[in-house]
Every structure is written in structure tokens, then in C-alpha cells.
Amino acid sequence: MSTLDELIAIKQQVEQQYLGRPGVTGVDVGYKVVGGVQTDQLAIRVHVEEKKTRVPAAEKVPAEIDGVVTDVLERAYQLQVVSEPLDVGVQAVDTNHYPTLQGGISMGPSRVIGGSIFAGTLGAIVVDNTNNQHAALTNFHVACVDSSWAVGNRMVQPSRIDTGVVPGDEFGGIVRAVLSGHVDGSVVSIDSGRANSAEVAEIGTVKGTKTATLGMAVRKRGRTTGLTYGSVDGLSLTVNVDYGDGIGVKQLTDQVSIAADTTKNAMFSDHGDSGSVIVDGSGYVVGLLFAGAGAGTVANPIASVLSELNVSMLVGKALLKDFKDGRKDIIKDKELLKERKDLIKEHKEFAKELRKDVIKERVLEGKMLKDIRDIEIPKPGRPGDPGPVEGGRSVDDRLGAIEQQLAALTSFIDQDQRPDLSSSAFSGEAEPGPDELQALRAELENQVTEAAAAKAEFDGPMA
């Protein structure tokens, strides 16, 4: 079975040949509808203005395209802005004047265009990346309407159709706008001192943005139909929409298709809802509504909107607090980690110094052992008398030196293991005979050999 990405790739290869046919309004990949009921089968869907019982063979949509099942949907897309002659009365669900600007409320241009006034929806509050100022997000065709717009054109909340008064209800002017192959959007400044928040009426705090996925449950709050519910039923929609005099038909690609949840509302959107943000069940914005066809709605992916308009979505202060608290926890964790690293470093340095001390001790011990090894064994000058040795030192002097060396070897010879030399065999006693001297010489030579072996062991590498 083909993956979603594979289906989109096939759709992209063939969409232009279908979009060029009479009555075709769009092509996307989404759920196939059978008998008015949406199934879970993915299909390449061709949208048309009107389904006909008789279609010329050259214009028919085949049952399959490259092995992928197809579907034909009746969807004639229109921009969902509302325009009325200047003297027409109120027709919106929400005509309230909001002291705090937020998403999901009525707005429109202050100016009269072609004898008419226009209304749409303020989608959400954003942050202008060029100056870090808060601004209002809506559609190009809501704020600009047509090609006659200019930067600075003033906006009112609510719209003039919805009892907005010029200039009393003006809140800002157009900063920038874009109508591209992906986005129908505009950014409106917010006058200094005008309160605003990261809220969407009846939905709550905006938590951030996400990418729309097939089957995702969504909702929106618009000027005309209020709070409605639906789901993402199509992706990668390429759609043709007529923008009227001065602009004409525009083709937008990679759009998101929304189907109404008819158990809650017959339509997801209607004229006047243009500019609303599409929000998932957790408060993350996924799209910017700009057109619709009956129960179906089309939205720009929010990532494209923010990128092309150079703005960021404003999120609630509570979320910022959570983020900051989270950063505090991270910083705290980092501090603990640093303390642990410092402790490990101290341990390593201690071990290093200890190793140095051990090596130094072993060197010292080796030096002392060398001193013992270098002691010359006295040779007798005459029978029964060892006589003077080199430097005029007697045997007593030599044994005293050995005792001093042995006393310094406390690092590996415990006190209770040291020989008791407090009463020398040569102190106040008869001079040793030749046999005794020979035995002493043998004993000293044995000690020197053992000491040399011990030195070699200590000089070896540490385990």
C-alpha cells in the first residue's frame, strides 16, 4: 500500500492536467467520500464546481491514477470575506467591541472600496519579528481587499459592517501583506496603548503552532459562524480561487482541507470567517482560513504564513511562565550537573595528587633502598678485628646508618615489624670473630638482595 508521501508525489505529477479542465477547482490527497460519508481510504481527490451526470470522456476522472484510487468532490471555493453596500445592516454573529484585541473577532478596513465596506476575522495576535511589536494576523483579502491597498491603511474592530465606527474604533494599520502561491495573509499594527492578548475567543490561550495532519480534530472561531468544529480531511491541496477585479484567479498549493463535523455544525465556515486561525484540540494553531466551499474549508499552513509574513505566534503568559519555570529547572539541573562534574574533577585531581605522592614515596623508598644496597660490607683488617672501613667508619657506624634508613621505611615496614636494634651485639661486648663477621656479611648481602628486589617491584607500573 502506498504511503501518504507517495500519494502526494503522484498527485503532484498529475494535478496540472486536471486543474486545467473545465470546472475543476482543486486537487489534493485525502479521505474518499462514499455516499456522503467519509471513509478511511486515502485517495487522490479532484474538486469540481459541480458534479455532472454526463462528462465528456476527455474530462472524466479515472477510477485510479497510477494504481491510486480517486474521488471527485463538489467544492466551488470562494473567499470567505463579506462585503456589503455602505448602508447595509448588521449580519454577524459577533458584533462586539472588544477592549482587548484577540483572535476570533470581527475586523475590517476603514476605507470604502468600490462603494462597499468589508468584514472578516482577526485570526490571532502575533509578534512582528522586525521590531518585536504585537500585531494582528488576518488575510490579505480581508485587510487589503484588492490591489488598491497601501501600507498604513487603517483597520477597525469590529468591522464597519458590524457597527464599527471610523475613526473611533480604529486599532492599527497594514504593516505588510502577501498573496503568494502558498499564503493569503496580512499583518496589522496595534496602536500604542491598545490592550491585546494571546487568546482566541471561546477557544482560549494559544499555546503555539503545529503542522496539520490527516484526521486531526480542529476548531475555529470566526466573525460569522462563531465556534465550529471539523477535521483535516485533505493535505497538499492545490486550489484555484477567484480574487476578483485587479487580481483574478490565483492558484495556491500545499493547502490544508478542512471538513465540517456535521454532528456539531452544518458548516465549518462561511463568508466573514476569512482570517480565522484553525486550532487543534490542545490550543495549537495549524492554519489560517481563507476560502470555503459549502461544508469544506481551505487554510494556509501556519508555518508558511508566519515565515512569509515574518512574524511569530504570540503565546499566553502562563505558557511563558511554564517555559521559564522549565528553564529554571533545566538551569538547576545544569548547576547540579556542574557540581557533579566539579566533584568528579576534584576526585580526579585528588587521585592524581595521591598517585604523585605514591610515586614520590616509591622514588624516595627506592632511593633509600639504593642507599642500603650501596653500603659496603666491611672487610677485616686482621683476624678478630674488622678494623676501620672506608672513610674511617666502623661497623657500629655502618649499622647505625642502616638503622636510620630502616627507621625511614615506615611506609611499608610497620613499627612492630622492625628489628630491635636498641642493644647492638657489638656494644660493650667482645669483638666478633672471623666466623661471626662472615655470617654478618652474608646476612647483610641477603638484606641488600631483598631490598633490591623490593625496589624493582615498587619501581614497576601501578596496577
Keywords:
elongated; alpha+beta; 24 strands; 3 domains; 9-stranded antiparallel beta sheet; single chain; 27% helix; Thrombin, subunit H; 6-stranded antiparallel beta barrel; 463 residues
* Main sheet overview: 9 strands, antiparallel
Strand segment count:
24
Rg is 46 Å
Q: Topology as H/E string?
A: HEEEEEEEEEEEHEEEEEEEEEEEEHEHHH
Summarize the structure.
This protein is α+β, with helices and mostly antiparallel strands.
Break the fold down into its secondary structure elements and pairings.
Elements: H1 4-19, E1 24-34, E2 37-48, E3 64-65, E4 68-74, E5 78-79, E6 82-85, E7 101-103, E8 105-109, E9 116-122, E10 124-128, E11 133-138, H2 140-143, E12 154-156, E13 170-179, E14 184-189, E15 196-200, E16 204-205, E17 208-209, E18 217-222, E19 226-242, E20 249-260, E21 277-280, E22 284-293, E23 296-301, H3 302-309, E24 311-313, H4 317-373, H5 395-408, H6 434-459
Parallel strand pairs: 2-4, 7-15, 17-22
Antiparallel strand pairs: 1-2, 1-19, 3-4, 5-22, 6-9, 8-9, 8-12, 10-11, 10-24, 11-14, 12-13, 13-14, 15-16, 18-19, 18-21, 19-20, 20-23, 21-22, 22-23
Helix pairs in contact: 4-6
